[in-house]
Amino acid sequence: MSKTDSNSDQVEKGHSVHESSISDILNAFTHTVSSSIQFNLKMSNALFETYLIYLNAASEYGKSWSNIFELEKILRSRIRMTIDKRFREKVFIGALSDAITDYSQFSKGIGLGKLYQLLSNRSSVWNNVFMEPIRDTLFRTPSEKICEIENYSLFHYVDAKSIRFTSASAKEGDRSVANQKNTPILVVYAFINRHYILDLLPEVSVIGSLLKHGPDIFATDWGTPSTYDKSLSIGHFVNKYMDKSIDYIRQITKSDKVSLFGYCWGGDLAILYAALHPEKVRNLVTIATPGDFELDDSLLAVWARAMKENYLLDTFGNLPGIMLNAAFILRNPIEYSHKYFHFFEQPRSLESIAEFFAIETWLYDSPPIIGEIYREFIERCYKQNLLIKNRMRIEDSNDNFSISVNLKNINMPFLNVVAKRDDLVAPDSSKALNDALTESYDKKLIEHDSGHVGLLIGKKAHKELWPEVGDWLKKRS
């Protein structure tokens, strides 16, 4: 074969490869369009059904209803139940899963996934360097970053009664806080939303409420992950970052143990740590934390169990925050579109307006979720329910091998706070933890009449719940 023939053969091979690639992209595009149409048809049918409910209720109003506000309340309840029922049907969930899978494959084929990862890396730098300092100070309880472990930060909350840690004292391991009696608390946040929900505004700050009882309060800050973090595992955070943070807290406070305070998935991280390192944990407090994942029948949990997350994460690296926001909105799109009109139907004080927009900002300020951590939570917890069965394994501190997590190792006092009207984490899933932690000699369950977020920012919660939680911790310091 001549050199010319050889080159011609190479070109033909390259051309066929190029055509194959274009063919794959066109095939992925066709599947994406088809699955998107199917999903939108299912959703449109559900929304049209809610319109029929509206027409029927309006007809009833002309005959029997005497109170327009009562009508609105009943109407919203009927629509909510209808959407929830339709969005749980297998055909809808299958259409949703197929649409996300096909979109992920198409995005990978045309390079949209790589573009997202590049933009995500720049967004991570912008958030961590410029936005985080603003988030951590504006309307927040005063705090200071006392150390960085790897790419993550450990914060210490201070109030008027506290003396700040100085860099010199921290290095020397000396304590420079006035109150030495109370066990320090480490607040462990979820990866799903920004940590400031526990310190949203001075009037509704869980951190501020707990500080009144005198403990030193520290907090994990996961920051905004980049695609360079996509392979970090649950074990990495529990056995490296959390363990080093707790050892650091023990060193500078001269306390042998630390109380753990975990919210949502952060509560699961706290449970994992307490099971693996019980000798370092004084008390364990979980807030709206899923325990028995098979009992979590919330809409997001139902969808999560049906997702093929590998396609999504293979394309985007981490779970994009915008997809998380879309999932929250999709749970009840009518309610989301209605709430702004409903809020401004009557005059509001500046305080209530500020609180409303602070909550809305937090809801949509969702960082990406680290890919491997999301995969592990979905596969090991939501799909296999390994945590409550004492069969979950996570990586050790060196990432060399996995270690088994046994909830029977949790023998310290345990406080479980559950929201009765939680629509993000089923209350029964959370309450199951009290039965699972069989070796804890001092267990308490508090069921508060609120939703998932209302548990943290509700006026009633700050009047009744959080003083009770603070007293519980103080008595066990």
What characteristic shape results from the CA principal axes?
globular
Computed CA radius of gyration, to the nearest angstrom = 25 Å
**What's the SSE pattern?**
HHHHEEHEHEHEHEHHHHHHEEEHEHH
The structural class is alpha/beta
Tally of contiguous helical segments: 17
Which CATH class of the largest domain applies here? Alpha Beta
Beta content: 5-15%
Distance between the termini: 85 Å
Mean pLDDT reading: 88
CATH superfamily grouping of the largest domain: Alpha/Beta hydrolase fold, catalytic domain
Which topology of the largest domain does CATH recognise? Answer: Rossmann fold
Q: How many separate domains make up the residues?
A: 2
What is the subunit organization of this protein? Answer: single chain
* Overall CATH architecture of the largest domain: 3-Layer(aba) Sandwich
Spatial order of strands in the largest sheet: 1-2-4-3-5-6-9-10
Low-confidence stretches: 1-20, 160-179
- The percent of residues in helical segments reads 55-70%
Report on the biggest sheet: 8 strands, mixed
Strand count: 10
Task: Indicate the topology.
Elements: H1 3-63, H2 68-86, H3 90-109, H4 112-135, E1 143-149, E2 152-157, H5 167-172, E3 185-188, H6 206-211, E4 217-221, H7 234-253, E5 258-263, H8 265-276, E6 281-287, H9 299-306, H10 309-316, H11 321-330, H12 333-343, H13 350-364, H14 371-383, E7 393-395, E8 402-404, E9 414-419, H15 427-436, E10 443-448, H16 454-457, H17 459-475
